[in-house]
Write a structure and sequence with these properties.
Blueprint (H helix, E strand, L loop, with lengths): L9 E4 L11 E3 L3 E4 L4 E4 L3 E2 L6 E2 L2 E2 L4 E4 L5 E7 L4 E7 L3 E4 L2 E4 L7 E7 L8 E9 L2 E8 L11 E6 L5 E4 L5 E3 L4 E4 L2 H16 L3 H15 L1 E5 L2 H16 L37 H14 L1 H13 L1 H10 L22 H6 L2 H17 L3 H4 L3 H15 L1 E3 L4 E3 L17 H21 L5 H9 L41 H12 L10 H11 L3 H9 L5 E2 L4 E2 L12 H12 L6 E2 L3 E4 L9 E9 L2 E8 L2 E6 L14 E5 L4 E4 L4 E5 L3 E5 L10
Helix pairs in contact: 3-16, 4-5, 4-8, 4-16, 5-8, 8-10, 8-11, 10-11, 11-12, 14-15, 14-16
């Protein structure tokens, strides 16, 4: 007799984590909450000025747990198919599941359970006051105590919720009954009333839960990655995708959104209290670590990240001016205004690579979508060109080396301060300058000649004898580093180098990287070895990441010992990229999407569904000897972009048209997905 296969999307436990930090977060890009916690957070709502700025704590009426007199079997379940967490208890006489009571035997006695609440309608960050009840719900509203910058906006928060009683009773004449409790949160009285009314309407029609399930089904249909043959890896990938997708607002364009997307912080919206998880600030983590995988699947969600950055341009301009430079200097730690809210000035002043990281996200988006509207009307060109102006004003010319230098920076490896010519910083600056020139040509803008001049002559440190890239001027080979730095030259920067140099960089820095450094690091080393064809070495490095995954709900910690930021989306993003861009070899290029599939021995197959490219949705199935690719029919998708006709161009020279609704299969080998030249073939009717 065989047991039913375990659903890799469902995580269950008979007990809760001993450390409440590892309770599962439930978020939607606009609101975030850690299950059973009395606090939730709302996108863009911060309290505190400057370096004390942190996510404002909002009391959560759903901070309720079931208690009962009878002993029973408890089950806690996180269903990632549907984004639903449930707590159920089975006793000899009844079954209770939040919040359903069901008799399991005939009885003439009423059944009562306790609802233990830790909710208090108050906050240290928001001064709340009562408002008149609305449609049977309690209503409070308040404003944050202090603004991010002097004289700045202090946002309002409105809550309406169904009162929760301390007990629920199933009468003797009923076999089962259910209760629904609703909470609405918004930034104005009108919005919160509309939200609450919409929720009540869904309850009345019985569509509250079904509409939620449909939304998640649509998300998974458009973006999933699974492997066969490696169960723990498969579950880890699903967990990463679930928490990352949860962190971006999936509200459709044109929806009457009660809140605005406020970027993604390392610990997501469920975290970010004062002195916790980097205060909920937005770092390069969003643009470099979380964004690439989301952009490959969901251009609409990716665009929200770009719009967040565009919305902080005035703060970025002020940051640059404060330091005496031109253009835009995006904040190392950003909240709402774009002014740097980093508690320590040295990071705000020296972690300059954030500028290039932001532009790289814009460049990847454009290469995936060819959406010039984002750069014309969406202010994307202002971002790219403003960063280019900053780099030109920030470099200094060295007459001896006949090169431009960037001095006094902190590289991604934060164990080193005030160094000159960080190789990653200079390389990402070079790439953003090159894209600024390219974008100028597309938009009919005449770029200043200094953009190209600096891009051509900026110093990229390289040791010709040891044939590797020193991390910065004066770096001594063998010195310890905190995290992935130089290895990022190969990916995501795609810097041209020989396989020998790529290997030397990987070996030199793998040996000296802190084992307790941030979780995203080993995924980048794994990805590098996959580039070089060593899948088994890559897999050994990827295995290190599993130490950061905390059971039972797949919540990541920043460090392998469980310390640091929790729900560490940055680590999840790095891990996901190692598989999504490593096993497939996907590289987002100017005129094509490159691929070079390679699987480790323990993985029988990789399925990637919903890859978005030039208005198309593609499904990939990669096996050890062959690859299958299909383009979905446009009618199946809801995007507004007119899809381009695509073809597979293998490195052997073979060209295979991709006909929507049909699959093509070819031997596993490198190649490209390219746009078909106009008139090459017609789509079938």
């Amino acid at each position: 007799m065989t047991s039913d296969p375990v659903d890799p999307y469902i995580f269950t436990s008979d007990s809760l984590p001993s450390d409440p930090r590892f309770m599962p977060p439930l978020t939607n890009g606009l609101l975030g909450w850690r299950v059973f916690d009395p606090i939730m957070h709302m996108g863009g709502v911060y309290n505190g000025e400057g370096g004390t700025c942190h996510r404002g704590n909002i009391p959560c009426p759903l901070a309720v747990q079931m208690k009962m007199a009878e002993d029973g079997r408890h089950t806690y379940k996180l269903d990632m198919h549907s984004g639903v967490f449930s707590h159920s208890v089975v006793t000899p006489g009844f079954e209770a599941a939040q919040v359903l009571l069901k008799r399991s035997e005939t009885s003439t006695e009423p059944i009562t359970i306790q609802l233990e609440s830790s909710f208090k309608p108050q906050s240290d960050d928001i001064v709340f006051q009562k408002a008149p009840d609305f449609e049977g719900g309690r209503h409070i509203f308040g404003q944050t105590i202090s603004s991010e910058v002097p004289g700045g906006i202090r946002p309002f928060v409105h809550l309406i919720w169904t009162p929760i009683t301390s007990t629920l009773t199933l009468p003797p004449d009923q076999s089962q009954s259910s209760w629904v409790f609703l909470v609405a949160v918004a930034g104005s009285d009108e919005s919160v009333r509309l939200c609450y009314e919409a929720g009540l309407g869904l309850i009345d029609t019985g569509d509250l839960r079904p509409s939620h399930l449909r939304s998640w089904a649509e998300l998974w249909k458009g973006s999933s990655i699974e492997v066969e043959g490696a169960e723990s890896l498969n579950r880890a990938l699903i967990g990463c995708m679930f928490y990352l997708l949860s962190s971006f607002s999936s509200l459709r364009e044109g929806a009457n959104a009660p809140l605005e997307f406020g970027g993604v912080s390392p610990g997501g919206l469920s975290n970010g209290n004062k002195e916790e998880d980097y205060h909920g600030h937005v770092f390069w983590d969003q643009d470099t670590w979380m964004y690439p995988s989301v952009a490959l699947f969901c251009p609409r969600l990716a665009r929200a990240v770009l719009e967040y950055r565009a919305g902080t341009m005035e703060g970025a301009r002020a940051n640059a001016q404060q330091m005496g430079y031109e253009g835009l200097k995006f904040a190392w730690e950003s909240a709402v205004t774009g002014r740097d809210v980093c508690p320590e000035d040295i990071y705000a002043e020296q972690e300059l690579h954030i500028n290039g990281d932001v532009v790289l996200a814009f460049q990847q988006y454009f290469y995936l979508t060819q959406d010039l509207e984002m750069f014309r009307e969406g202010r994307g060109s202002e971002v790219v060109w403003g960063v280019a102006d900053y780099w030109v004003s920030r470099v200094t010319w060295d007459p001896t080396e006949q090169q431009y230098h960037i001095k006094g920076v902190i590289p991604p490896d934060e164990y080193h301060f005030t160094v000159d010519n960080s190789v990653f910083t200079n390389a990402v600056a070079q790439r953003s300058l090159q894209f600024a020139v390219e974008l100028s040509g597309l938009l009919g803008h005449t770029p200043p000649p200094t953009w190209q001049d600096v891009a051509d002559k900026i110093k990229i440190p390289f040791d010709p004898e040891l044939k590797y890239h020193p991390e910065f001027d004066g770096y001594t080979q063998g010195s310890g580093v905190k995290q992935a730095d130089v290895v990022l030259l190969g990916y995501p920067l795609d810097m041209s180098m020989t396989p020998e140099v790529r290997r030397n960089d990987l070996e030199a820095y793998e040996a000296v990287t802190d084992l307790l450094g941030p979780a995203m690091t080993w995924g980048m080393f794994a990805l590098g070895w996959l580039e070089l064809g060593d899948a088994e070495r890559a897999q050994k490095l990827l295995q290190k990441c599993f130490k950061n995954i905390q059971k039972p709900f797949q919540v990541w910690s920043e460090s392998a010992d469980g310390s640091g930021c929790v729900n560490f989306l940055t680590g999840m993003g790095g891990f996901l990229q190692a598989v999504l861009f490593g096993y497939t070899g996907f590289r987002v290029q100017k005129e094509h999407l490159a691929f070079a599939p390679l699987l480790p021995q323990e993985v029988d197959a990789l399925s990637v569904k919903g890859v978005s490219y030039l208005g198309n949705k593609m499904d990939w199935l990669i096996k050890s000897v062959e690859v299958s690719v299909s383009v979905r029919k446009p009618a199946e998708e809801s995007g507004s972009q007119e899809p381009s006709a695509l073809q597979v161009v293998l490195n052997t020279g073979t060209t295979i048209p991709l006909i929507p609704g049909q699959s093509v299969i070819f031997p596993r080998q490198p190649g490209q997905i390219r746009k078909v030249n106009s008139g090459s073939y017609c789509r079938p009717l």
